[in-house]
């Protein structure tokens, strides 16, 4: 009997793990986080936009670095069309010292980020969204003043070589929204470094 209860409990935990985080169609989680310019940036600040390209990223991850220029280009291309980038660093700085707030400031200045770079200090936001990698994309769509998840996953199909990309998943998803359609696919596998969480 005890063994059966234990097995049932493990199954329940596994189900929760699989279902953790948001899915396309879900309501986006609100946030108010500190930006590298010392201001507080909230999701509600973007209520006049068509959507938001929310990217969980960090300083040291090779995948995050490889995508950095592309993320800047995405903001340059789509912010004027109503889809600005908002970057969030979810890593615990005790585990990943390169991801301290001060180092985030340095990185944003060096690379001249045209978008906010926020610190998820409590790590509550990335967990609520279900982000697991850096980078991990959550494309939000503004539906009558309420943000919904439209697409989750990777930016494209080649993390390390921008010139070899054949599938631009995020751009296709944004294009679908602009056309009034539903992104297809609306999920892909995020490729990157595991988010550094404090146990």
Give the helix/strand layout.
Blueprint: H1 2-19, E1 32-35, E2 40-42, E3 51-56, H2 62-78, E4 85-89, H3 101-111, E5 117-119, H4 124-129, E6 133-134, E7 136-143, E8 146-153, H5 169-178, E9 193-194
Overview of the molecule:
The structure is a single chain. The chain is 31% helix and 21% strand. The model is unreliable at 1-19 (pLDDT under 50). It has five helices and nine strands. The protein has helices at 2-19, 62-78, 101-111, 124-129, 169-178; strands at residues 32-35, 40-42, 51-56, 85-89, 117-119, 133-134, 136-143, 146-153, 193-194. The chain has one domain (22-194): 3-Layer(aba) Sandwich (Glutaredoxin). Strands 2-1-5-4-3-7-8 form a seven-stranded mixed β-sheet, with helices on one face.
Short description:
The chain has 199 residues and is α+β, with helices and mostly antiparallel strands. The chain contains 5 helices and 9 strands; from the N terminus they run H-E-E-E-H-E-H-E-H-E-E-E-H-E.
Distance between termini?
32 Å
- Please tell me what the overall shape is: globular
Average pLDDT figure: 91
Uncertain runs are: 1-19
Note the main attributes of this structure.
199 residues; globular; disordered N terminus; Glutaredoxin; 9 strands; two-stranded antiparallel sheet; alpha+beta
């Amino acid at each position: 009997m005890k063994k059966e209860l234990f097995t049932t409990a493990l199954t329940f935990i596994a189900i929760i793990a699989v279902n953790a985080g948001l899915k396309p169609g879900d309501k986006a989680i609100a946030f108010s986080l500190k930006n590298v310019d010392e201001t507080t940036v909230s999701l509600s600040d973007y209520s006049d936009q068509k959507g938001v390209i929310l990217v969980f990223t960090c300083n040291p991850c090779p995948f995050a670095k490889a995508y950095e220029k592309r993320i800047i280009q995405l903001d340059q291309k789509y912010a004027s069309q109503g889809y600005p980038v908002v970057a969030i660093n979810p890593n615990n700085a005790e585990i990943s010292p390169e991801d301290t707030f001060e180092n985030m400031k340095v990185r944003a200045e060096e690379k001249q980020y045209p978008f906010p770079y926020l610190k998820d200090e409590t790590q509550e936001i990335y967990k609520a969204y279900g982000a697991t990698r850096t980078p991990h994309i959550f494309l939000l769509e503004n539906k009558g003043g309420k943000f919904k998840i439209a697409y989750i996953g990777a930016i494209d199909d080649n993390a390390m070589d921008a010139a070899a990309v054949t599938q631009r998943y995020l751009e296709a998803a944004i294009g679908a929204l602009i056309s009034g359609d539903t992104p297809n696919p609306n999920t892909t596998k995020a490729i990157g470094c595991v988010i550094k969480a404090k146990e």
